């Protein structure tokens, strides 16, 4: 996820105006094809953890994140111009501009710093399970800041997902959380979760006035504005010249398939199937993350990873019933 993924929770549901604008495109695509496209999207999002780990081996985190979103912007900006007919929303007030800047700060700058930095220190499969608790943390944030009621199913789901994350990061010994034995990489990946929950809550406000595509594109643009100077300070303006071909391929995967194309296909799925049915596919992301880490990076599969995954996915399903 990689990634920039406002599509990873139900907060990305389209507004009525979006439905009118994009609904025809969704109706023109068969349901079977949508299922295939969503499955491929989940595979791409699972693969972003492997791509992020490969980038982390060759690049400083802010520098890698900057070039990821350069490549994403190359796709998102023309797509927004085509779909929306404009790049800048009409009559954009300062408040909305500040909100988009916060989206860039949390979802693009903060999330991707922790994502790449963390993946340099922990396995891709393990990271994908930790990030899978995003919906649970967002659910808690909705209750804390938007006064949404926590149901018994929701409370049980949140606890279950958190327990799954604890089992995963401690390799089956959750009591190690309290003894300071948790790996730094896992802690940094949990920073992704906090940034994404913040991004989702801010996105809830942004989507009241802007389409998901417009919001994502401007979050990406603001993310670049934050990441550019930070990347120069971190590695210098010419650090990209030393990137290996594998790093460039990984960045291209993150920026295009993991961000721009992934967002577009998932949004099409929402249009055709509805937000609830499309969101079910999100449960496949950590599965693809674990499998791709095993196949490509030769990562170890152990019982704690499987147990953590089952607990996290069970927690998400309980929250969806809440």
Structure, described:
The structure is a single chain. The N terminus is likely disordered. The chain is 74% helix and 0% strand. The protein starts with 15 loop residues before the first helix and ends with a helix. The chain has 322 residues and is mainly alpha-helical. The protein contains 13 helices and no strands. α2 packs across α4, α4 packs across α9 and α5 runs parallel beside α13.
The helical percent reads over 70%
Strand fraction band?
under 5%
Number of helices: 13
The gyration radius over C-alpha positions equals 19 Å
Largest sheet features: none
Structural class, from secondary structure content?
mainly alpha
Poorly predicted ranges (pLDDT <50, ≥5 residues)?
1-17
Distance between the termini: 24 Å
Order of helices and strands: HHHHHHHHHHHHH
Mean pLDDT: 84
Number of beta-strand segments: 0
Shape: globular
Observed structural traits:
mainly alpha, 13 helices, globular, disordered N terminus
Concise structural overview:
With 322 residues, the protein is mainly α. The chain has 13 helices and no strands.
Question: Layout of SSEs?
Answer:
Blueprint: H1 16-27, H2 31-56, H3 61-84, H4 94-119, H5 124-131, H6 134-145, H7 152-169, H8 184-206, H9 212-235, H10 245-273, H11 275-279, H12 285-297, H13 303-321
Helix pairs in contact: 1-10, 2-4, 2-5, 2-10, 2-12, 3-4, 3-9, 3-10, 4-8, 4-9, 5-7, 5-8, 5-12, 5-13, 6-7, 6-8, 7-13
């Amino acid at each position: 996820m990689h990634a920039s993924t406002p599509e990873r929770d139900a907060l990305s549901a389209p507004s009525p105006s979006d439905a009118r604008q994009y609904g025809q495109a969704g109706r023109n695509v068969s349901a079977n094809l949508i299922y295939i496209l969503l499955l491929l999207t989940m595979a791409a999002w699972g693969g972003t953890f492997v791509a992020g780990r490969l980038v982390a081996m060759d690049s400083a985190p802010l520098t890698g994140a900057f070039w990821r979103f350069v490549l994403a912007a190359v796709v998102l900006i023309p797509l927004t111009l085509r779909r929306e007919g404009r790049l800048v929303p009409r009559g954009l007030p300062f408040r909305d501009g500040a909100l988009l800047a916060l989206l860039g700060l949390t979802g693009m700058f903060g999330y991707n710093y922790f994502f790449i930095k963390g993946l340099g220190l922990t396995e891709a499969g393990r990271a994908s399970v930790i990030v899978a608790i995003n919906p649970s943390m967002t659910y808690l944030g909705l209750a804390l800041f938007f006064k949404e009621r926590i149901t018994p199913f929701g409370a049980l789901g949140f606890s279950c997902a958190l327990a799954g994350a604890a089992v995963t990061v401690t390799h089956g010994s959750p009591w190690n959380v309290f003894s300071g034995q948790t790996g730094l990489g896992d802690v940094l990946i949990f920073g992704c979760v906090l940034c994404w929950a913040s991004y989702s809550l801010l996105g809830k406000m942004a989507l009241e006035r802007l389409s998901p595509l417009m919001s994502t594109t401007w979050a990406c643009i603001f993310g670049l504005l934050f990441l550019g100077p930070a990347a120069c300070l971190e590695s210098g303006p010419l650090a990209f010249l030393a990137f290996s071909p594998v790093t460039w391929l990984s960045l291209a995967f993150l920026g295009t398939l993991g961000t721009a194309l992934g967002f577009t296909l998932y949004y099409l799925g929402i249009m055709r199937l509805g937000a609830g049915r499309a969101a079910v596919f999100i449960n496949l992301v950590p599965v693809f993350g674990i499998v791709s880490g095993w196949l490509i990076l030769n990562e170890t599969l152990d019982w704690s990873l499987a147990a953590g995954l089952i607990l996290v996915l069970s927690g998400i399903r309980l929250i969806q019933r809440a």
